[in-house]
Amino acid sequence: GINWYRNFSRNWDIVGAYDQRITQPTLMIYGDHDSVPASPELDQFVDELTIVNLPCGHWIQQEQPQATTSAMLGWLTKNYPA
């Protein structure tokens, strides 16, 4: 994972050539106490966005595993019913 940051300049050149828009349904889970702030403009780049906030920090799936799983399963059921 750290190699992404080590190679950040080259990665920026590569991804900059693509449209910076997400068109498929997207779930974003934020931790309310995360030191990395939520993006206030995310909905400008994502067409079908669902945002869930959980009372935790940065390591959402470790701090709130049941709530994270519940949010994901609920979102999947709504957006991709069997």
User: What's the quaternary structure here?
Assistant: single chain
- The averaged pLDDT comes out at 92
Order of helices and strands: HHEEHH
As a percent range, the share of helical residues equals: 25-40%
Task: Report how far apart the termini are.
Answer: 33 Å
Q: Rough shape?
A: globular
- The Cα radius of gyration reads 15 Å
Strand order of the largest sheet: 1-2
Total strand segments: 2
Content-based structural category? alpha+beta
Low-confidence region ranges: none
Biggest sheet descriptor: 2 strands, parallel
Structural description of this entry:
The structure is a single chain. By secondary structure, the protein is of the alpha+beta class. The protein contains four helices and two strands. It has helices at 2-6, 8-15, 60-63, 65-79; strands spanning 26-31, 49-54. Strands 1-2 form a two-stranded parallel ribbon. The protein is globular, with a radius of gyration of 15 Å. The model has no long low-confidence stretch (mean pLDDT 92).
Short descriptors:
82 residues, alpha+beta, two-stranded parallel sheet, 4 helices, globular
Topology (elements, then pairings):
Blueprint: H1 2-6, H2 8-15, E1 26-31, E2 49-54, H3 60-63, H4 65-79
Parallel strand pairs: 1-2
Describe what is shown at a glance.
By secondary structure, this protein is an alpha+beta fold.
